[in-house]
Design goal:
Elements: E1 3-5, E2 12-14, E3 18-20, E4 28-32, H1 33-46, H2 48-61, H3 63-94
Length: about 100
């Protein structure tokens, strides 16, 4: 079996287009990734203000985690920019 029918849209799609779910017999969700994404977007739009408030509260309660994440993110971004700059400089010197 290389295809599966999505329970939401009814289309037969390749197995790679379904998310994993350990509890299912075949190990895959019943809805394709596109349908799951669409339903998540609709749920977010319906509850946008509630979601924003929830995120805001979590960030306030976990200020240290937010700061640590931002610090690590900035470090990763800077190092990738430095690496990209070094790669570009090396390519210019070769060519």
């Amino acid at each position: 079996m290389t295809t599966k029918q999505c329970k939401k849209c009814g289309e037969s799609k390749d197995l790679s287009l379904f998310g994993r779910q350990q509890a299912a017999k075949d190990g895959l969700k019943n809805e394709c990734k596109a349908c799951v994404k669409l339903s998540n977007q609709k749920r977010y739009e319906k509850n946008k203000e509630k979601h924003k408030e929830s995120v805001k509260n979590w960030q306030a309660e976990n200020h240290d985690k937010v700061l640590e994440y931002k610090k690590n993110y900035n470090r990763r971004v800077r190092s990738s920019v430095i690496t990209d700059d070094a790669d570009q400089k090396a390519l210019r010197e070769e060519g």
